[in-house]
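Researcher: I'm preparing a figure for a lab meeting and need a structural model of a single chain. I don't have an experimental structure, so a prediction will have to do for now. The sequence is pasted below. Please return the structure as tokens so I can convert it later.
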Amino acid sequence: MRYLSVVIMIVLFGLPGEAQHKEQERVRNAGMVIKEILDIPDGIPQQLLDKAECVIVLPSVVKLAFVFGGSYGRGVMTCRRGNEFTGPWGAPTMMALEGGSFGLQLGGQATDYVLLVMNPRGADSILSSKVKLGAGLSAAAGPKGRDAIAATDAAFRAEVLSYSRSRGLFAGAFLDGSTLRPDNDANKRLYNRKISAKEVALEDKVTPTPAAQELLFELNKRSPKNLSS
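Model: Understood. Here is the structure written out token by token.
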């Protein structure tokens, strides 16, 4: 009888803690990815990072070849605080990426993605519901390093600029056809209460967990001010 009681306690109380730990690990991984990618010489141009309203980090997105080239990834989105996106980077909200093949390596190779959200409309759309990149939201492969000077007008008009890193190779990434959506179930597990992506990212209703320390430290160090017009 005592053994049965222990099992019941583990089911009732142990699993939520394990689920929260999993989400915290995703946030920590996002922090490591953003640091490593921002350390790449001639990587994401500083002038573009300084004009971004939000950043999405998707560590280890995996292509699932057995699902007709479908892809699956989980990560975080953090935005600059305040109504005008002029404050420091705020608590991350959990995000999900799903969709068709978009240039991932074959054989289940995992790829890290960083997406810059360049205007308030893009941020609001992504945080409100599922959006399809290239259709509901304009997206382009982000220019790298000095290439930013020669970037096309289309890239600068895009609401989302995307970058990828796989096997040490860093490049702009085409994500047309994939979808982004808020992962509110993951938010509930991370913050221990039901809360929407908008409430986390735009309304400053939660305190960042310790797992977000590296992510927010790196972004606040590398891009403390929003220089968009």
